[in-house]
Design a protein that fits this description.
Layout lengths: L6 E6 L3 H13 L2 E7 L9 E2 L2 E5 L4 H6 L4 E4 L8 H12 L3 E2 L2 E2 L4 E2 L4 E2 L4 E2 L4 E2 L4 E2 L4 E2 L4 E2 L4 E2 L4 E2 L4 E2 L4 E2 L4 E2 L4 E2 L4 E2 L4 E2 L4 E2 L7 E4 L4 E5 L1
Parallel strand pairs: 1-2, 1-5, 2-4, 5-6, 7-10, 8-11, 9-12, 10-13, 11-14, 12-15, 13-16, 14-17, 15-18, 16-19, 17-20, 18-21, 19-22, 20-23, 22-24
Antiparallel strand pairs: 3-4, 24-25
Amino acid sequence: MPRKAKIDCIVFGGGGHARVVMECLRLSGVARPVAVVDANPALRGQRVAGVRVAGGDESLPGLKRRGLRHFAVGVGGTGDNRLRQRLFELGVAHGLQPLEVVHPTAICSPDATVGRGVQRMPGSIVNTGVVLGDDVIVNTGAIVEHDCQVGAHAHLASGSVLCGGVRVGMRAHVGGGAVVRQGIMIGDGAVVAAGAVVVKDVQPGDVVAGVPARPLRRR
């Protein structure tokens, strides 16, 4: 049952991840999405999960004049998280406050440190000593074990597992169902393919896949 929202907010992006973000916001009662910002002209004036698409970036000044002061990034990312970073920084540059997005079934240790705009999706688990940077996604069913550190704008996709003490760099992507062994370092902008098992450090920008994971290319 959705809880009564405390504030109204903007959602950047009008795709599937945006719909999940809006559902989380409604169920938690943190905020009520009232406007979608998306650069796709075909979406302008349409509705996403019942919320009208106001337009692209140019619509932000008008939305601020309506009194909206909070936002959530509704773009997921499938390997390149630079767009998420750009949208997050766009919102902050316009003086908006990033919202933490938390599904009611998400679990987080009180001893974890969570940055601005972090998204913890249904069934995700964040254990003690974890540090999550700004704008991180811990997607549906993902597990972040004790003492991991995850850099800003990184995406831990659905069902992925970080064992204890893993370090994940900024804008990195850990694909669905991937497992990262304890103590491993994953560099900035690296991509771990879905289903991979990572037993060696991954260099910045590398794309790795397989069991065990091996480099495919460098972006």
